[in-house]
Amino acid sequence: MLTSMSDALKTRLAAFSSRPLWQRRLVFGFVGAIGGFAYYHFVGCASGTCPISSNPYISTAYGALMGLLLPVQKKKLKTPSEVESS
């Protein structure tokens, strides 16, 4: 059973990673925004002196920005034989 779950997860991850970069950035940005708001809501800053976590708009925007930066385009690394031939 564990093997079939692992295979299903690998299939879903492969399908997600084959999507265009802008779609992956959109998903990660949305998840980051939810995470930023959750950080404000659950951790927050009662005194108001914390620049990010004292304002829900700033913490949500910061989380979205962090989410947008995560899904960078992967570059295919060259093997040593490809480097020597070029």
Descriptive overview:
By secondary structure, the protein is mainly α. The radius of gyration is 19 Å and the shape is elongated. The mean pLDDT is 80. Helix 2 (21-42) packs antiparallel against helix 3 (56-69). The chain is 67% helix and 0% strand. The chain has a domain at 18-72. It is built from four helices and no strands.
Distinctive features:
mainly alpha, 86 residues, 4 helices
Provide a compact summary of the structure.
This protein has 86 residues and is mainly alpha-helical. 67% of the residues lie in helices and 0% in strands. It has a domain of 55 residues.
* Rounded mean pLDDT score: 80
Number of strands: 0
Low-confidence spans: pLDDT under 50, at least 5 residues?
none
Number of helices: 4
Identify the overall geometry: elongated
Distance between the termini: 46 Å
How many strands, which pairing sense, and closed or not: the largest β-sheet?
A: none
Beta content comes to under 5%
Q: Label the structural class.
A: mainly alpha
Work out the radius of gyration: 19 Å
Instruction: State the helicity in percent bands.
Output: 55-70%
Helix-strand topology string: HHHH
